[in-house]
Amino acid sequence: MPHRASRPLDFETRQIHAGAVVDSETRSRVTPIYQTAAYVFDSFDDGEERFAGRSAFRAYSRNENPTNAVAGRRIADLEGGVDGIVVASGQAAIAVAIAGLAESGDHVLVTRSLYEGTREMFRGVLRRQGIEFEYVPDEATDDEWAARFRARTKAVYTETLPNPLGQVVDIERLARIAHTAGVPLIVDNTVPTPYLWRPIENGADIVLHSTSKWLSGHASVIGGAVIDGGNFDWSTQPERFPQLTESPRPGVPSFVERFGPNAYLAYLRSVIVLEYGPTVPPTSTFLLLHGIETLSVRMDRHVSNAQTIAAWLEARPEVAEVFYPGLASSPFRERAEKYMPDGAGSIVSIELAGGREAARRFIDALELISPMTHIGDVRTLAIHLGSTIHAKLNDDEKAEAGIGPGLIRLSIGLESARDILADLERGLAAAAAA
Ligand SMILES: Cc1ncc(COP(=O)(O)O)c(C=O)c1O
Predict the structure, then answer these.
(1) In testing the pocket of ligand 1, which one of 212, 216, 221, 374 has its CB within 8 Å of the most ligand atoms?
(2) Which of 248, 271, 291 is the endpoint of a domain?
(3) 399 is in which domain, residue-wise?
(4) What is the pLDDT of residue 33?
(5) What is the 3 state secondary structure string of the chain?
(6) How far is the CA of 190 from the centre of ligand 1 (A)?
(7) Is residue 1 part of a domain?
């Protein structure tokens, strides 16, 4: 950070400076790529101190690398958290965040609308490891939520702006429900990014990102991040979170005693990430940091393009429904304005009136828009969900997840809106021929 700042810096400044350290030897302005596996000990005693976590210096890049540390601090700063760590992917961030709280026999309450890869992990590898994920319907009342908590419930999990349908989640309410039951709220904030929404301000405790998306912004890297809001008081529930409140070994203080509000992130860094090893290459983080430096500028344009395109699509007869919470007609508009006054992100999903066949023709007619999986690129992307990301679901499961036969997810990029619309026009003309 610039060391002469006399007032809290604005988001646009922090996205460029937060967490950066100018090293005393080279004075490199840009955060270097510290492409090293490990760090030389100054002495026998220094090695012992580093392994005990009592040194300011690092031992090994699996869980501590200076390039990665800058990104962890920067995203934490932008989210208003106390600490953060970057990991190999968004999936790794989710897995690590859950592993820090839950083990075999534990239970997590989950909102229904989530990125399908997350749902796949919850019903797949994490369920096989013995963690139960219980989905709570969107219309559940506070009492219905309260009735589902158990002694072994360890968290509530949600997404701010669920991929792909954008049903804006009432984070303040979920935080209240989770805290009343004594558990933290975990929020995947990938789609709005901290520029449009900072859920820690609404009571979220742990924030996750796929940094592969808008944070890096150019579809060139895979990465993820876990941010600790630092507000959850683990010590009020010592029996629920013994990994944080009990001494790990005789004579060693608990993570809460040692790290206070940073306890959860310190546990992730020094136990979960150290043991599992989901390390992101610092070369990827170098590109991530460059992406973050222009986040606000890109997001403003992502949003204005998405708003223009969603409104245009809404008027098209080939489109049965547009899912974009920035539209006046969206049932989520009011909540979007409350939580994201600067715009509702840039995922616009459409249900084509002609179903799967129309979707096939639409995708195959595109010339500018890239037909591919992924979101948050500078380029506009399109994907038919039923035949790709949601292909493993049967028809009932697709219907329950809101995945119609003609559902196309668009991730609106930064090209000129006119050129994107011309390509959409081409796609819709082909779809209409179905
Ligand atoms: C909301 C959300 N969270 C997490 C992920 C997983 O991220 P990654 O692909 O970086 O593993 C994705 C991927 O699309 C996503 O959309």
Answers:
(1) 212
(2) 291
(3) 295-432
(4) 98
(5) CCCCCCCCCCHHHHHHHCCCCCCCCCCCCCCCCCCCCECCCCCHHHHHHHHCCCCCCCCECCCCCHHHHHHHHHHHHHHCCCEEEEECCHHHHHHHHHHCCCCCCCEEEEECCCCHHHHHHHHCHHHHCCCEEEEECCCCCHHHHHHHCCCCEEEEEEECCCCCCCCCCCHHHHHHHHHHCCCCEEEECCCCHHHHCCHHHHCCCEEEEECCCCCCCCCCCCCEEEEECCCCCHHHCCCCCHHHHCCCCCCCCCHHHHHHHHHHHHHHHHHHHHHHCCCCCHHHHHHHHHHHHCHHHHHHHHHHHHHHHHHHHHCCCCEEEEECCCCCCCCCHHHHHHHCCCCCCCEEEEEECCHHHHHHHHHHHCCCCEECCCCCCCCCEEEECCCCCCCCCCHHHHHHCCCCCCEEEEECCCCCHHHHHHHHHHHHHHHHCC
(6) 7
(7) no
